[in-house]
């Protein structure tokens, strides 16, 4: 099936540019010999006999005044067939006596072919962009991806067998030029990444990751993200949030869900880190989107009981540090700049208030989950500025 390269708007571009250079009227005829753009608008949609001859024999047709009288819809001039990618797509006509316009013919034809090539590249880029945006939508919104994605993936040359994750880049008040530079980076230097805007100041990226020994190479990942930041700095780079890696057909859908959950969590908890990984915040991210319900109230009961008996927030601060240091007494005491015996006393106070044993796994887990669920609540004296426990 032939592709239509010579469209009306492309033909108009050819006429406008050619007539800004030469003092003669220019016509562009389609593959059927119909005038689709002209320096004389009244001739548009007319059938041009000279173009029909040029197309039929694929040759330059010169028509003088005497010959023009014998042909329908024709004036003196030169008609040159236009080919693109080995396909005869139309005819370029310059109105005037052949001896007068012959010197301009090849020059104008060359210029017209450049216009066609330029417009074809723009159109190709637009289709490429649309396909990429549609592919991103299908991959992250569907579980599992639709069958029709296979032809789209093949067209774009994307290898979905390669391990990938979803990342969100947040920007602060980017200007148009900075955004164009950032998109140029992904279009020219990172073609294996799928990128789209969900908002003026947010990009969604589906990016390949490097595996090392069967595990995600986080060292290489940080290098990649820092490279993103260097290109996005002029766009007001704020933060990049990376979802988890999940193999299988629905893996990118899950990665998207974890990236969004982590984004909601870091905004709620006012996390300041510029590089945020779901695997560092898995539990608070999973809990961040839990709706208010009796289950949430019940899971929060032990922590809220502690809060109500801790007006200065000291015990809350102590427990957070204790959890953050994996319940290690010496490390926690060192972090809090207190004696281990002081720490033991505070943990005993927590036991007395909550009526649990601090070394009982089920009870401590209940307390920890309650703390994470209530992390966005305003604590006394705002003592909750520490980073959450990492969950690997």
Automatic annotation (TrEMBL):
A Pfam family that this protein carries is GGDEF_2
- In this protein, which residues make up the domain named CdaR GGDEF-like? 147-264
Highest taxon above the source species = Bacteria
Which positions fall inside the PucR C-terminal helix-turn-helix domain? 316-371
Q: Which residues form the Putative sugar diacid recognition domain?
A: 7-139
The family annotation for this protein states: Belongs to the CdaR family.
Task: Kindly provide the name given to this protein in its UniProt entry.
Answer: Transcriptional regulator, CdaR
- The organism named in the record is Enterobacter lignolyticus (strain SCF1)
Top-down, what is the taxonomic lineage of the species of origin?
Bacteria, Pseudomonadati, Pseudomonadota, Gammaproteobacteria, Enterobacterales
């Amino acid at each position: 099936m032939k592709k239509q390269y010579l469209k009306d708007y492309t033909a108009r571009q050819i006429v406008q540019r050619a007539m800004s250079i030469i003092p003669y009227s220019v016509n562009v005829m389609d593959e059927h010999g119909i005038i689709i753009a002209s320096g004389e608008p009244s001739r548009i949609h007319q059938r041009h006999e000279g173009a029909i001859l040029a197309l039929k024999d694929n040759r330059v047709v010169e028509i003088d005044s005497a010959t023009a009288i014998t042909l329908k819809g024709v004036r003196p001039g030169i008609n040159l067939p236009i080919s693109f990618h080995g396909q005869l797509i139309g005819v370029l006509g310059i109105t005037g006596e052949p001896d007068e316009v012959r010197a301009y013919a090849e020059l104008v034809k060359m210029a017209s072919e450049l216009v066609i090539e330029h417009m074809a590249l723009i159109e190709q880029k637009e289709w490429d962009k649309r396909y990429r945006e549609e592919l991103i939508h299908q991959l992250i919104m569907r579980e599992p991806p639709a069958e029709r994605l296979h032809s789209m993936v093949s067209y774009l040359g994307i290898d979905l067998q390669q391990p990938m994750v979803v990342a969100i880049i947040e920007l602060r008040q980017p200007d148009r030029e900075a955004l164009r530079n950032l998109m140029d980076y992904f279009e020219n230097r990172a073609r294996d990444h799928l990128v789209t805007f969900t908002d003026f100041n947010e990009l969604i990226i589906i990016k390949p990751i490097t595996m090392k020994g069967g595990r995600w190479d986080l060292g290489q990942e940080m290098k990649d993200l820092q490279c993103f930041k260097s290109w996005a700095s002029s766009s007001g780079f704020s933060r990049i949030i990376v979802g988890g890696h999940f193999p299988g057909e629905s893996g990118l859908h899950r990665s998207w869900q974890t990236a969004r959950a982590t984004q909601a969590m870091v905004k709620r908890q006012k996390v300041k880190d510029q590089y945020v990984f779901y695997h560092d915040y898995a539990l608070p991210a999973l809990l961040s989107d839990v709706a208010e319900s009796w289950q949430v109230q019940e899971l929060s009961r032990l922590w809220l009981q502690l809060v109500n008996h801790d007006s200065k927030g000291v015990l809350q601060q102590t427990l957070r540090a204790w959890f953050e240091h994996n319940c290690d007494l010496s490390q926690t005491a060192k972090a809090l700049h207190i004696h281990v015996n002081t720490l033991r006393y505070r943990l005993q106070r927590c036991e007395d208030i909550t009526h649990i044993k601090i070394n009982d796994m089920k009870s401590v887990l209940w307390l920890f989950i309650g703390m994470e669920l209530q992390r966005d609540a305003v604590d006394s004296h705002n003592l909750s500025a520490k980073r959450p426990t990492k969950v690997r």
